[in-house]
């Protein structure tokens, strides 16, 4: 039996030609009855529509939606269908270059006409031989996909193997905190050597990064002081401006007010720094990665002070309610604070006991929202699917990984890192 789709069935202006696509690969056997599909006729969608090139992407999306909705998965096993998305449209309708045919209204009308004609074809009318053949092909491919999937047991074993790989990676990096830089440089491990070149950026043990260690003394040591607009101001200055600089690692200090900062900056300029060199001294635009900190600048410090005063009540209310998610959203209000910096600020408020610890599922939800390195890591470990993972999938995957690490890593090592 042949499944025949003729161009003239879809577009009245198309030439009266029957296009053939050979698919000799598909051969079915059932109860000793064989159906060999020698010729399944399907001409590319672009042969049925006259569409200007500049509208190709829009039309591709619309046609894809129509075909998926009506045609079934087997449609996408025809080479001619994929050709429609690679090659330029073939203009069959008159007036291919007219201004009228490049208008959005014309395109919408053409797509609508295609959908109406497409769904009237016998292949999509129940009980017709063409429809039965198409459904048979759909079922065959669906069964083929199902048979190719690994068993659930092997899938879980694969996940555990990936989590074990990550655990061993963390264990491999423990010398970063258990050894001195000199000892690492004298060794032969190039990975460890590369990481210690910029621990603030590369270290997976964030709280042990040099900048953070110094900030825990100068900024985060007094949780009572942090419960004020002044504390909020200093946290924002640290993560939004100073993080990752040499000054931050050695000379980071607390500022009692905006005037205190202005006096410090003025003294810096009087001490021989030009404005540009002072900016480079106080700001490391690559501290969060090559693309993350480009907006960091000392000019934001004035806004931090003014907004900290303005939003102090809201800040204290969120802290009082132990609302981690609200605090994450709150930090995003400030200039230069993106999703990553906001996430780090929330983590620091937990470390200094402004907020209580949270379950791994909550961190998983934040990772899903931030949609950056944490999610990419779960994808690389094959714990989630890059394209189809939803928020709940990311939460569960992160919690699974966290619990695996917590159970398998020695307690002494956990305390160390």
Brief description of this entry?
By secondary structure, the chain is mainly alpha-helical. The chain has helices at 56-71, 79-86, 104-120, 129-148, 152-172, 175-178, 181-186, 190-195, 199-202, 210-218, 223-226, 229-242, 246-251, 258-270, 275-282, 300-310, 312-320, 324-331, 339-351, 360-370, 373-380, 391-408, 411-416; strands at 21-22, 27-30, 33-36, 39-40. The chain has a two-stranded antiparallel sheet with strand order 1-4. A two-stranded antiparallel ribbon has the order 2-3.
Task: Give the SSE layout.
Elements: E1 21-22, E2 27-30, E3 33-36, E4 39-40, H1 56-71, H2 79-86, H3 104-120, H4 129-148, H5 152-172, H6 175-178, H7 181-186, H8 190-195, H9 199-202, H10 210-218, H11 223-226, H12 229-242, H13 246-251, H14 258-270, H15 275-282, H16 300-310, H17 312-320, H18 324-331, H19 339-351, H20 360-370, H21 373-380, H22 391-408, H23 411-416
Antiparallel strand pairs: 1-4, 2-3
Helix pairs in contact: 1-3, 5-22, 12-16, 18-19, 20-22
Describe the structure.
The chain has 417 residues and is mostly helical. It folds into two domains: 7-148, no CATH class; 160-416, no CATH class. Helix content is 58%, strand content 3%. It has helices spanning 56-71, 79-86, 104-120, 129-148, 152-172, 175-178, 181-186, 190-195, 199-202, 210-218, 223-226, 229-242, 246-251, 258-270, 275-282, 300-310, 312-320, 324-331, 339-351, 360-370, 373-380, 391-408, 411-416; strands at 21-22, 27-30, 33-36, 39-40. It has a two-stranded antiparallel ribbon. Strand 2 and strand 3 (33-36) form a beta hairpin. Helix 1 packs parallel to helix 3 (104-120) and helix 20 packs across helix 22. Residues 1-54, 82-97 and 150-154 have low confidence and may be disordered.
């Amino acid at each position: 039996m042949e499944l025949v789709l003729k161009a003239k069935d879809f577009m009245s202006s198309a030439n009266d030609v029957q296009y053939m696509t050979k698919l000799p690969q598909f051969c079915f056997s059932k109860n000793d009855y064989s159906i060999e599909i020698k010729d399944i006729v399907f001409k590319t969608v672009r042969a049925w529509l006259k569409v200007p090139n500049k509208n190709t992407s829009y039309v591709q999306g619309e046609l894809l939606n129509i075909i998926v909705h009506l045609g079934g998965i087997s449609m996408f096993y025809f080479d001619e269908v994929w050709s429609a998305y690679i090659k330029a449209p073939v203009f069959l309708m008159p007036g291919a270059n007219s201004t009228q045919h490049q208008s959005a209204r014309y395109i919408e009308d053409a797509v609508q006409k295609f959908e109406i004609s497409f769904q009237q074809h016998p292949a999509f009318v129940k009980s017709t031989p063409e429809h039965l053949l198409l459904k048979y092909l759909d079922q065959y491919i669906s069964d083929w996909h199902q048979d190719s999937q690994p068993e659930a047991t092997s899938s879980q074993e694969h996940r555990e193997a990936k989590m074990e790989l990550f655990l061993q990676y963390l264990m491999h990096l423990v010398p970063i905190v258990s050894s001195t830089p000199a000892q690492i440089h004298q060794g032969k491990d190039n990975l460890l050597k590369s990481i210690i070149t910029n621990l603030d950026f590369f270290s997976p043990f964030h709280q042990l990064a040099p900048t953070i260690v110094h900030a825990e003394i100068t900024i985060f040591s007094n949780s009572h002081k942090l419960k004020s607009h002044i504390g909020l101001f200093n946290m924002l200055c640290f993560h939004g401006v100073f993080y990752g600089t040499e000054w931050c690692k050695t000379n980071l200090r607390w500022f009692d007010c905006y005037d205190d900062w202005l006096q410090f900056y003025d003294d810096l300029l009087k001490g021989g720094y030009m404005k540009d060199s002072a900016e480079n001294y106080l700001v490391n635009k690559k501290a969060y990665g090559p693309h993350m900190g480009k907006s960091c600048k000392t000019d934001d410090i004035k806004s931090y002070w003014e907004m900290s005063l303005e939003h102090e009540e809201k800040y204290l209310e969120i802290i009082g309610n132990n609302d981690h998610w609200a605090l994450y959203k709150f930090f995003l209000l400030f200039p230069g604070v993106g999703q990553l910096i906001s996430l780090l600020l929330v983590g620091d408020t937990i470390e200094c006991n402004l907020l209580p610890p949270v379950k791994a599922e909550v961190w998983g939800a934040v990772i899903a929202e931030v949609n950056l390195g944490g999610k990419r890591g779960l994808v690389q470990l094959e714990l989630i699917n890059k394209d189809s993972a939803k928020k709940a999938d990311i939460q569960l995957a992160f919690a699974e990984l966290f619990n695996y690490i917590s159970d398998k890593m020695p307690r002494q090592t956990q305390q160390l890192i």
